[in-house]
Design a protein that fits this description.
The structure is a single chain. With 367 residues, the protein is α/β, with parallel strands linked by helices. Helix content is 37%, strand content 12%. It is built from eleven helices and eight strands. It has helices at residues 40-49, 87-95, 117-136, 153-162, 188-197, 222-242, 245-248, 264-278, 289-296, 310-320, 349-364; strands at residues 19-24, 100-105, 142-147, 169-177, 201-207, 254-257, 297-300, 325-326. Strand 7, helix 10 (310-320) and strand 8 form a beta-alpha-beta unit. Helix 4 (153-162) runs parallel beside helix 5 and helix 8 runs antiparallel to helix 9 (289-296). The protein is globular, with a radius of gyration of 20 Å. The two termini are 38 Å apart.
Length: 367
């Protein structure tokens, strides 16, 4: 996807009000950039054995995208390195022209989904130190996400508690494709620790759990993967609700990232309908499934559904709540959403302000 900005929509056209960008993907300039933050045993281990993931093709996209790193062609840093690896270029291309007051980093390819749990934990912890060293300590607008070796719930919880109170981090980050659906008890230590330290848990599309994106198996095309993220996220959300995660962790807040939100009402309706007849199977649920979804889930835009009729979009947002939407660009990826072009006309000033900044500041506790 040779996508780049149109000249009229580039940095020269800035948005005047401050915004929050809740999905920014920083990249490492070199593979050994993490070594200063890891014990030496892992340097040689990686050189000798590499990474063994549950999922194939961890070092590259599972479907050809015709564009390295699924990124914009104009996002290559002038000093070299992959897209998203240069802070100065990110500042010039994203943070400054779009008045980003809060940028939430969501590192991908972080070590989540490795079979060697000790190595997964070492890489994830190094990623967290790397976020501080290279990004958040250099630009206070940026905040990190705590990445964890989520298949080892005990170790993941320890990493979360290790970062408790650190202002460099504003959420815990999981991926949607794991060994099991995220409501399963093996992941509960993550939620317990996140609730304990008061950080929301973000669930970003993608992952390396070894399972196909769809319940029907592996699709053929990249476009199927793009829309399949919504299906995968629905499975995640149904699992979280029906396994009783929100009953057990009533203060837990979660963010669905890069999987859209237009499907949320229909999932809630279907769950509620089944719940009427099958409540006895999950007696620990005290409320209708849709009520848990509305109370505990926030949603990032990008991708944001674009129905033919504007009122359909507004009706969807009213169902999930204007206070639950978080703006995101997905920088530096090819499907970047420019802030000035995202919301259609007809949005009140109060909802517009909440959408672009207020909701994120409140959720992440930013003054």
């Amino acid at each position: 996807m040779n996508v780049q900005f149109r000249p009229e929509s580039s940095a020269s056209v800035s948005i005047k009000t401050a915004i929050a960008d809740c999905d920014i993907h920083p990249a490492r300039a070199t593979n050994d950039e993490l070594f200063p933050f890891m014990a030496k045993r892992w340097h040689s281990h990686l050189d000798t054995y590499g990474k063994q993931a549950y999922h194939g093709m961890m070092e590259g996209p599972p479907y050809p995208k015709a564009q390295p790193n699924a990124s914009r062609r104009d996002a290559w840093p002038p000093e070299g390195g992959p897209q998203g690896s240069s802070l100065s270029f990110m500042q010039k291309q994203l943070l400054d022209p779009y008045s980003v007051a809060l940028g939430v980093l969501n590192p991908l390819n972080s070590g989540q989904g490795l079979r060697n749990q000790d190595m997964a934990g070492a890489i994830c912890s190094a990623i967290n130190d790397w976020q501080i060293e290279k990004w958040t300590s250099k630009d206070r607008r940026l905040k990190g996400s705590i990445v964890v070796a989520n298949e080892d719930g005990v170790a993941a919880a320890a990493e979360i508690r290790k970062r408790a109170g650190d202002p460099n981090f504003v959420q815990v980050l999981l991926l949607s494709r794991n060994v099991e659906p995220l409501g399963q008890r093996r992941y509960w230590p993550v939620y317990e620790a996140a609730q304990e330290i008061g950080l929301p848990v973000g669930v970003h599309a993608f992952g390396f759990g070894g399972n196909p994106l769809t319940p029907s198996g592996w699709p053929s095309f990249y476009i199927e993967e793009m829309v399949g993220h919504a299906q995968c996220q629905q499975t995640v959300l149904a699992s979280l609700v029906l396994e009783g995660v929100f009953e057990r962790f009533p203060k837990l807040k979660m963010v669905m990232i890069e999987a859209g939100f237009g499907w949320a009402p229909s999932l809630g309706w279907r769950l509620d309908k089944s719940f009427e007849r099958l409540h006895s199977e999950v007696p620990y649920l005290k409320r209708k499934p849709s009520e848990y979804i509305r109370d505990h889930i926030w949603w990032t835009t990008q991708p944001m559904e674009d129905p033919e009729r504007r009122d359909h979009l507004f009706q969807t947002i009213e169902w999930i709540g204007w206070d639950k939407l978080l703006f995101a660009t997905d920088y530096p990826h090819w499907d970047f959403d420019e802030p000035s072009r995202v919301l259609p006309p007809g949005v009140s000033e109060a909802n517009r302000e909440a959408f672009y900044l207020g909701n994120a500041k409140k959720l992440y506790g930013i003054a």
